[in-house]
Design a protein that fits this description.
The chain is mainly β. The chain is built from no helices and eight strands. The two termini are 26 Å apart.
């Protein structure tokens, strides 16, 4: 989800947990039980390992990623 469904404000009444888009490229395979946090960006041709927690922007296409956006295999391609 790209939202927290509630607002958290600081002492000056400024919202500190704004919504952030999730971007998923083309031909991305996301394994089971993966959590993709708001503000994440998954590049085209990627595979996300089962059970991973994804946060922030991943930079490289054609990789297998796991929690912490770690690349566990690169230069991959996959097809259905």
């Amino acid at each position: 989800m790209d939202t927290d469904f509630h607002k958290i404000k600081d002492a000056t009444n400024l919202i500190i947990n704004n919504d952030k888009a999730i971007v998923v490229g083309d031909n991305v395979w996301i394994g089971c039980r993966v959590t993709v946090l708001k503000g994440s960006s998954i590049p085209s041709g990627s595979v996300i390992a089962a059970g991973s927690l994804i946060s922030g922007k991943m930079e490289k296409n054609g990789c297998v990623y796991t929690s912490g956006n770690l690349i566990i295999k690169d230069n991959i391609s996959w097809e259905r």
